[in-house]
Each structure stands twice: as structure tokens, then as C-alpha cells.
């Protein structure tokens, strides 16, 4: 197996070989071109605060100390905003020595402002699974804006498997951009191992530039598509005369990149979630971009990146065209059998500004 991110067929083989274990067979659409969706188990634990288990300590040991209440998810249960929950996942791992993994929220999870991080036994970092890990997987869930309904099998996070050094260096990234045009920017800004994306605050023909999440809403069922009216949960934001937007630290925003993004089939990409060099705000919760995202033969013409934006401790002014994040590209170990887009009837191919699939 060559170095890079494992594609869909290798993820399936890893499951067949026992490297991924599950309480039941995979769902038909659970394996993505470069990742595997992770499913919630039947119990959730309300905990006092977020935690890392630390070297040599299991998540179960920490739950025994910090759990306040156990919740049965069978039949559906509401997870409240401002609370932290830990849920054992249906999948567990017995990775070969050369394979490591990393997790990230799914796109729809990020667009609902659900903060999720995957935990493993002995972890000293969130969302990282060391090479050769044998053990269970857990997910920490903290809804930030909307209360949510989840149940066993709900899929909020996804995991990528890697071998070797998959990330492109700056020279490789520049060469790939020259060959395949990774963004629509006239002059690509490539530095720090990634390609820059900027914010669009001019908006569409009607001046719509984004959405701000409302407080004190109803619940969002994470498994139901097109079930909630947009205006019950979101306040539209229109272009200002100055082309600026002040981010309030207490608010959550859905915005969009000025550039269209292209991820060629032999590569995958990930957006850096926070870069203090460009401002005190977090620009993306769900950072995985699959092979074929914005790729014309896969049904796209370049897709803009929808950004889940939350300021940190102070208000922050964004201006149209300001750099807000960087895309890091990685090699696939081999081409996936299916690409993001037409092959998968993907939700966000050829997108502009778009809320999650739960709203209509």
C-alpha cells in the first residue's frame, strides 16, 4: 500500500480484515471517497467538562470520574446547547502498525454549530488516532447554537486513515495548482503549506452574504433532511455599505469563500480550523474536502467553501476579500472508486452559500 490517504476500497478492505470493527454492518453510504462516517452508539454521558484521557488512561476511566448523567439514545434524545456529552461510537479500531487516523466533523455537523471531537484511550490530542491503535472510539458532542436530536446510528463525525507522509509541500502544491487550478483566485497565495481562501462579503445579486444563527430555537433532528424552515433558525445577513462584517463573540455565522475550490480525484484537502496569524476567530469546524469536490467531470464547476465562523474572545471585523483560512492538500494512496459529486449525489457539490441539508 503506497503512502497517502486510504480511499473507499481500502477502507472497506480494512473493515473486512478486522482493522475496523463495528457493532453491525456498515450503512450503504457510510464509506465516503476518502473517509468513513462514524455512528453514535446507544448511550450518551453528560459530563461536567471536556477532557482528554491522557497517556495510559482510558476514556471509560475518565467517564467514571466526570459523568453526571447517562442518557438512553434509543428512540432519540435531545442534546442541549451549552452542555458537553460523550458518546461511545459503534466503530472501534485495531489498526495495523503503519496506519494512523484523524477525525473531523461532517459538513452538516459544522453547519449546525455542533462542536464534535473524537477521543481514543490514552489520547493527548483530540481527533488523532495513533498508528497501530487498538481500542474503542468515543465522540465528544457540544451543541453550541441549536439543541439537537440524535439516536443510535446518527453520524456527526468522519475519520480518515493515512500511511506515510501524505501532505504536499509548498512546491508540490504550486505545481498542482499550475496543472489543475485548485482555486479560482487570479493569484494563488500559497504559503504555510496551504493555499489561501478569502471571504466573500459582496454576496449574491440580492446582497445576501451569510446567515447568523438564532438563539432559543426549536430542536434540529440531525437525521432529517429539509425538515426545518430556514427563517425559524437563521437570520439572513446582507451586504453592508462598507463591505464589512463585525463578528460578535457570542454569535455563529455561515459565510462563504470568494474563491471556488477544486480537489482533483487523486487528492484530498483539509481546511486549517484556526490561524491566529489572520485573526482571532475560528473559520471552519468541518475541514475535510473529498476527492472530486468542485471537479468538473464529477458534476462540479468549482465549489466555494462554506465557512462556519465563530469569533473568539473579542469582536472582530471581517472585510471583503480578507484571507480567512488555508486549504492543505494531501495525496490519496490510490484513486477512490467513487468521487464526491455525481457518483454520490453529494449535498454540497457546485455550492455557493448554502446552509446544511436540514433546512428548507
Automatic annotation (TrEMBL):
<dbReference type="InterPro" id="IPR053811">
    <property type="entry name" value="DCD_C"/>
</dbReference>
<dbReference type="InterPro" id="IPR036157">
    <property type="entry name" value="dUTPase-like_sf"/>
</dbReference>
<dbReference type="GO" id="GO:0008829">
    <property type="term" value="F:dCTP deaminase activity"/>
</dbReference>
<dbReference type="InterPro" id="IPR033704">
    <property type="entry name" value="dUTPase_trimeric"/>
</dbReference>
<dbReference type="InterPro" id="IPR010550">
    <property type="entry name" value="DCD_N"/>
</dbReference>
<feature type="domain" description="2'-deoxycytidine 5'-triphosphate deaminase C-terminal">
    <location>
        <begin position="170"/>
        <end position="359"/>
    </location>
</feature>
<dbReference type="Pfam" id="PF06559">
    <property type="entry name" value="DCD_N"/>
</dbReference>
<keyword id="KW-0378">Hydrolase</keyword>
<dbReference type="GO" id="GO:0009394">
    <property type="term" value="P:2'-deoxyribonucleotide metabolic process"/>
</dbReference>
<protein>
    <submittedName>
        <fullName>2-deoxycytidine 5-triphosphate deaminase</fullName>
        <ecNumber>3.5.4.13</ecNumber>
    </submittedName>
</protein>
<keyword id="KW-0546">Nucleotide metabolism</keyword>
<feature type="domain" description="2'-deoxycytidine 5'-triphosphate deaminase N-terminal">
    <location>
        <begin position="4"/>
        <end position="164"/>
    </location>
</feature>
<dbReference type="Pfam" id="PF22569">
    <property type="entry name" value="DCD_C"/>
</dbReference>
Amino acid at each position: 500500500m503506497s503512502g497517502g490517504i486510504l480511499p473507499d476500497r481500502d477502507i472497506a478492505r480494512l473493515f473486512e480484515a478486522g482493522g475496523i470493527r463495528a457493532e453491525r454492518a456498515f450503512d450503504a453510504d457510510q464509506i465516503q471517497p476518502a473517509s468513513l462516517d462514524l455512528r453514535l452508539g446507544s448511550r450518551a454521558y453528560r459530563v461536567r467538562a471536556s477532557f482528554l484521557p491522557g497517556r495510559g488512561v482510558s476514556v471509560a476511566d475518565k467517564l467514571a470520574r466526570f459523568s453526571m448523567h447517562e442518557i438512553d439514545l434509543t428512540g432519540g434524545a435531545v442534546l442541549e446547547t451549552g452542555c458537553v456529552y460523550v458518546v461511545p461510537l459503534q466503530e472501534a479500531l485495531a489498526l495495523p502498525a503503519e496506519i494512523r487516523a484523524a477525525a473531523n466533523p461532517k459538513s452538516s455537523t459544522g453547519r449546525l454549530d455542533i462542536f464534535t471531537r473524537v477521543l481514543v484511550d490514552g489520547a493527548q490530542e483530540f481527533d488523532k488516532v495513533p498508528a497501530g491503535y487498538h481500542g474503542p472510539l468515543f465522540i465528544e458532542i457540544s451543541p453550541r447554537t441549536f439543541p439537537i436530536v440524535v439516536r443510535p446510528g446518527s453520524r456527526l463525525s468522519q475519520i480518515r486513515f493515512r500511511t506515510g507522509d501524505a501532505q504536499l509541500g509548498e512546491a508540490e502544491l504550486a505545481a498542482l495548482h499550475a496543472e489543475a487550478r485548485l482555486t479560482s483566485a487570479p493569484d494563488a497565495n500559497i504559503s504555510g503549506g496551504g493555499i489561501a481562501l478569502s471571504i466573500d462579503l459582496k454576496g449574491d445579486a440580492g446582497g445576501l452574504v451569510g446567515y447568523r444563527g438564532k438563539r432559543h430555537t426549536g430542536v434540529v433532528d440531525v437525521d432529517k433532511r429539509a425538515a426545518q424552515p430556514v427563517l425559524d433558525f437563521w437570520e439572513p445577513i446582507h451586504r453592508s455599505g462598507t463591505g464589512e462584517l463585525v463578528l460578535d463573540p457570542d454569535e455563529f455565522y455561515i459565510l462563504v469563500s470568494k474563491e471556488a475550490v477544486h480537489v482533483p480525484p487523486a487528492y484530498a484537502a483539509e481546511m486549517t480550523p484556526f490561524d491566529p496569524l489572520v485573526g482571532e476567530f475560528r473559520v471552519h469546524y468541518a475541514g475535510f474536502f473529498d476527492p472530486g469536490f468542485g471537479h468538473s467531470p464529477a458534476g462540479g464547476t468549482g465549489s466555494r467553501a462554506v465557512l462556519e465562523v465563530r469569533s473568539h474572545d473579542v469582536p472582530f471585523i471581517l472585510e471583503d476579500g480578507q484571507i480567512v483560512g488555508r486549504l492543505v492538500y494531501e495525496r490519496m494512496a490510490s484513486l477512490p472508486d467513487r468521487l464526491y459529486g455525481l457518483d454520490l449525489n453529494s449535498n454540497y457539490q457546485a455550492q455557493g452559500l448554502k446552509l446544511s441539508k436540514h433546512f428548507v
